[in-house]
Amino acid sequence: MTAEPAANPAGQPRGPLPTAARSAARARKSVLWHACAIVALLVLLYPIVWLISASFKPADEVLSNLSLLPRHPTADGYHQVFSGIADYSVWHYFGNSLLVSVGAVAGNVISCSLAAYAFARLHFRGRGPLFGFVIATIMLPQHAVLIPQYILFQKMGLVNTFWPLILPKFLAVDAFFVFLMVQFIRTLPRELDEAATLDGCGPLRIFRHIIVPLLRPALITTAILTFIWTWNDFFTQLVYLNDADKFTLPLALQIFIDQTGQSAYGPMLALSVLALVPIALFFLAFQRFLLDGATNSGLKG
Questions:
Q1: Which of 25, 74, 125, 213 is the most core-located residue (most Cβ within 10 A)?
Q2: How many CB atoms lie within 10 A of CB 61?
Q3: Alpha-carbon distance 224 to 287, whole Å?
């Protein structure tokens, strides 16, 4: 005996949904997804919008006026910033931040790429355990090595200079970028190295002429993230820099807080907005390379 098909109480034909129904379902999902994305975008952009708006508020309105729009707009904060901070021009602090950030970018790009090439392509004793040790340092808190590093730089007479902020970057201390580039290099065919070896190229020439051009997405990703993290760094710069003429932009913000704990909100917020401008422009200019680097490198698994 064969089982009879179950009755369809609605009397509707069985089978896939009509094309119009599927299109309507996809449209509803698309609208819902875009609505959620817009809400998330507004939540993420609200602090930035508030910061820009508050920078044009008088000091007495910053905490009392909770609305985004200032009641009595003023540009006194920007005028005070451009008039000078602690006897130095705001461009002086911009220059210090730029010097530290560019130096850190150069150090990470050069040292991490060389270390990654060694771990990914060269064969030497202890390569596996050493690479595992490097990766394990990702979980090591920065505060655990802060005191030994400070003592080391103090013995070398480098405290209150930019060297403690730049020099470690030339020693491949950022294990995240080493891992990123190792994973990227491992996706490159070894036949390229073998062909270059047959042509008489050594490891350094292979690295320079074969690996580096193909490694560009990962190098750009490393440069972008290093620049952003170094530009926004406050704690490390606070530890090593003492004089106002060495201050970077994050440290210049603390000048507006006096010994009683009172803050000059107008210039502080204005300088915060100005400090965000280079980061925003840098990200907008290189966001395509950042996405390409994340897609084509080891971040994809």
A1: 74
A2: 19
A3: 9
